[in-house]
User: Fold this.
Amino acid sequence: MRYMIRTEGVKRCFKTSGGDFWALKGIDMEAPKGALTILKGRSGSGKTTLLNILGALDKPTEGKVLFDGSDIARMDERRRTRLRRMQIGFVFQSVALIPMMSAFENVEYALRLTRYPGDRAERALECLKLVGLSQRMNHLPQELSGGEQQRVAIARAIAHKPKVIFADEPTGELDTNTGLQVVKIFKDLTQAEGVTIIMTTHDTGLMEIGDAVYELEDGEVVHGE
Assistant:
């Protein structure tokens, strides 16, 4: 199996006061294993809705979502919660670091939450090294730049060795150069850790870095490569 995630005819309908709103209208896509897949599109295109479904945060109204061969759309909530905790990492536009904890402590705390069975301190340091922050590991979030905070968030997301990391607009609050550095870290992590990464963005300057790119418009894939 060459893909980590594949969707088949995924649709998502939201009930509104004005009637049914179809945020996704039949999405077919594949995210290759150990690669960086980018979902691009303007605000309202459906990319965040799709990311939430791929990450087992939401369920599709119709269609299949195969995660390493298993249809997560058919899983009960207990299995979905376990999947998120053990096999998935999340990186959001808002880094949501714990302000009174150092960079190292933020990563180590995430390992405790996921009940990481190995040496938590060793793994936390390893992850901070992977994102180039070993020299800043004792700094508090407010002592770090926006790009550095996002790198801590990435280290936290990969710490428990998930199969997939989902990143929703991780460069949205960063300048172009810092955003490129963050995406380059994602690319390097697919090789160093073998992790599959799926990220959303509206920044066309980041497209060439992805191994696979899907463009969404009005809830449909209008271009994929």
Notes: The longest helix spans residues 176-192. The first strand starts at residue 3 and ends at 16.
